[in-house]
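Re: that chain you flagged

S.,

Sorry for the slow reply, it's been a week of failed gels. I finally had a moment to sit down with the sequence you sent. For the record, here it is as I used it:
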Amino acid sequence: MSVLSVLKERGFVEDLTHTEELEDYLSNNRVTCYIGFDPTAASLHVGSLVCIMALAHMQRHGHRPIALVGGGTGLIGDPSGKTELRKVITQKEIDENKKGLRNQLSRFLDFSEDKALLLDNASWLTKLEYIPFLRDIGRHFSVNRMVKAESYKARMDSEDGLTFIEFNYMLLQSYDFMQLAKSYDCFLQMGGSDQWGNIVAGIDLTRRTIGKQAFGITFPLITTASGIKMGKTHKGAVWLDAQRFSPYEYYQFWVNADDADVARFLALFTFLPLEEINQVGHLKGADLNKAKAVLAFEATRICHGEDEAIKALEASVSMFGGLDIPGDLLISSSIPRKTHLVINKKSVPSSSYNKDDVVEKVSIIDLFMDSGLCKSKSDARRLIQQGGAYINGDRVASFDQIIISEDIKEDEILLRAGKKKYHKIILI
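Prediction finished late last night. Pasting the structure tokens below so you have them in one place:
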């Protein structure tokens, strides 16, 4: 399957240019493509993930991605999708931000042996001379067409209007495309839907100046099922930098996804096969929560590594209880399948019981008391009443509850009192 088909099926593509020619180009060439990232902060955020994952898919299909850090354009600020003038940042801030972006992108892309490139448009934009630029580049742009571009409309209609410096942004981004085409044989630019006008302008400039066909793909603006822009929370942006947004917080962001978003997010933000993801659509309730755990684990693993994903899973299990992930659910995921046992087994006190002496005979209250999690039956009742008693991650709802066969998971029962006190019952 071609990479374009993969991107379409996984929900990445909103629009593209020259559909048939692009399909042929991608199918018969090792293509170099690029996406630009302006260094407006020291960290990218979840809102950038669609672009990053698209580059990763391109690389996995044998193509060469370029992540273009906008050290030059960052000095101006892209007006696309903005109703207000972006804050102008200093060169020192840009240099610091570039370091952070390099570190984050390296988790998603392999930059070794020419497999991907990390470039900075400051290396050519800051060397431009104004008069030659106007003469050689500016003459190819129609102001009439430019003011009709969606990237400018919002600013043109705003109270503050569009500044002249921002008006030049389309020319500079187009110049980037032309420069990458000349120097790196890069004839495919990708970006968010708000970049359509800039991408088309770059394609036109490339054709006019070097006489070659270039292509563009745009991605949809991702919103949650509730209509909120992807990556926005009550705490602000969901950063990819672990110092700004911890791996545990990152995991929780994904595990708390709306039910309606789970399958879509698995397709966009993990590399799990679509044939497995398509099985998630019919899941509900507790079964869907297990799919959410896989989503959270895989997204965290891709962004922060396997070790941090496991730590985040462990922390989540210790706080909220575990889930047994069925062996036939999203089988390509590396998530531990018995998440209620993810907690370090050596650190969890345990007791052994004869199964026949427990099932249908022992009450929850007695088990909490005998395990040492509660000092007395009244203490156990109080714990249940306060909602702090759990069995295998499920809250105990009744004083009269007794142990039944459904409570046994792999010959074990995991009890929890409060947030951090555990005891494992081993049945023999």
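What I noticed first: The longest helix spans residues 285-304.

Talk soon,
D.
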